[in-house]
Amino acid sequence: MIITNCAACAAPLAHNAPRCVRCLTRYCSSTCQHDHWGRGHEQICEEIHRGGDAEQYHADRKYEEASAVAVEACAADTAGQTCYICYGEGDEEGLVRGCSCRGTSGFAHMSCLTEQAKILREQAEENNLGVKAENERLARWHTCSLCEQRYHGVVKCALGWACWKTYVGRPEGEKMRGMAMTELGNGLHLAGHYEEALSVKEADLSWMRRFGGSKNNILVAQTNLSNTYSALGRIKDAMRLRRVIYSRRLRLHGEEHGKTFGAASNYATSLLYLKRFEKSKAVFRKTMPVARRVLGDSHELMLRMKKLYAQALYRDPGATLDDLREAVTTLAEAAQIARRVLGGAHPETAKMEDDLQNMRATLATREAEES
């Protein structure tokens, strides 16, 4: 269940919390349930029931809100454009573009993106195309089919709610319902709704454990949770979890696997935020040459590792002049590739270029002082 708090008092809910018999609204106790009935639930219970019961009703409305936010955020960029899926204009619904497409590419109605992802997944399921094809089609919930880069920000958040509202009616233990929970948690995180994301990601990990998730999927859920811990400033909690994940990824996949690179990067990032600069740099130096050989310099994970390694060099109070030069060289290379691959408007590119400007200024000051 994604409604993770009592409708009456907002206390956290267990997965088997009591619920309204008619509309399935959930409560932490029968006392709260009776209290809520008297405070107005009686008037809206039937409406919620007709809307598909509490979870579906909630998901539909949250999707409408998130979609409106995404359309508004993209309005300046999408004015006068057409949807690449249905070729319609955005006069009524509005258009979005939250990927790395440029020029006149990638504009779409949120409803078209949702329907495309839903249909592709259903076709794979109905035609028994196999796990690989199913997973490739699942990517439409988080990755643009044109530029093949992940959606970000409020567009990803709206897609997360779209995915959840599409599959929330499936049986609780079905994998598509679990996948939708993962997409929603990631979307909330990327839009900066970290407290909401935390509740969803905790529910996702609990779901994995209750319904026998694979070792890999449990590690994915733990990774997602650690990312939100970090975003909320719970750096030590994130670091402890990431250290375990990195160790288990090494055992499960070996050191030349993409998931191991991601786990190493996350662990090194937590060390960086805790100002354990030498250990952070050591993990990056061990991982980056292998990742470069396997993934190539243009992979998004490789770009992120270069950015973070440069920060570890730059932020270390004991950084030498050579360290600062290496930081600037590393980040300049990453920023140039990011602009080509992700585009100048992508938040990752913008952040790299801002950091690079600061690093160059610091380097120039140090060089002047030591000349």
Question: Can you put this structure into words, describing what you see?
Answer:
This protein is an all-alpha fold and 371 residues long. It folds into 4 domains: 1-50, no CATH class; 52-191, no CATH class; 193-295, Alpha Horseshoe (Serine Threonine Protein Phosphatase 5, Tetratricopeptide repeat); 299-371. Helix content is 68%, strand content 0%. The protein is built from 14 helices and no strands. Helix 3 (110-126) packs across helix 5, helix 6 (175-190) runs antiparallel to helix 7 and helix 10 (258-273) runs parallel beside helix 12. The longest helix is centred in the first third of the chain and has 26 residues, at 53-78. The mean pLDDT is 92.
Task: Reconstruct the topology from this structure.
Layout: H1 30-50, H2 53-78, H3 110-126, H4 131-138, H5 153-167, H6 175-190, H7 194-210, H8 215-231, H9 235-253, H10 258-273, H11 277-295, H12 300-315, H13 321-341, H14 347-370
Helix pairs in contact: 2-5, 3-4, 3-5, 5-6, 6-7, 6-8, 7-8, 8-9, 9-10, 10-11, 10-12, 11-12, 12-13, 12-14, 13-14
